[in-house]
Amino acid sequence: MVPTLPSSQGEAPEAPPDLHPVPSAGSFGHPELCQRPCLHFLVGRNCLAGDACNYCHLPHSPGPKLDKRQRRIIEEMPKAHFLPLALELLADKARAMELQGTEALMGILENEVQSEDAPAAAAPAGVSGRPPLGLMRCLRAMGFRNLTNMAARKCAEGTKIRIRETVQALRANVSQGQAGARVTS
């Protein structure tokens, strides 16, 4: 129902729309694998796309924000250093979430690490072995999908596409599980 303005005859306006979240296609896998939040819901409006919206219609807690220094460290960190770290964190998150079917994603990232022909480059200035603790805290607090996207940015274009497709397949598996849980409950 779309709200209307009162007519010139003095009729009362229709009731405002119900702003309760409608699970959408983008909500599947919430909160770890879902899409970004729908901007309409963030500002308190109904989304006209409803359940067909490709963005998440469920509430999100604010995620960790990398500061400028942390972003620079990650940007300058060689792929050979960042991807193994991301693999370790993603494996920990998958175990903690009891997320099934991550083997393909982990395999893609492992292959990308092994495809690095050049010897591992030196760590960026100010980084000795592991990244600083503050950065590690942020990376650990990130959602599975965000960390996967960050790892994908370090990969070759073809690998980025395979990662995106694999995450979509994970979301589809999770969405089937969520749909089954709604039907059986």
TrEMBL record:
The keyword Phosphoprotein does not apply. Residues 1-24 are annotated as: Disordered. GO terms for molecular function: zinc ion binding. PROSITE patterns: ZF_C3H1. Keywords: Metal-binding, Zinc, Zinc-finger. This is C3H1-type domain-containing protein. Residues 32-60 form the C3H1-type domain. The keyword Glycosyltransferase does not apply. It comes from the Eukaryota. Residues 1-10 have a biased composition (Polar residues).
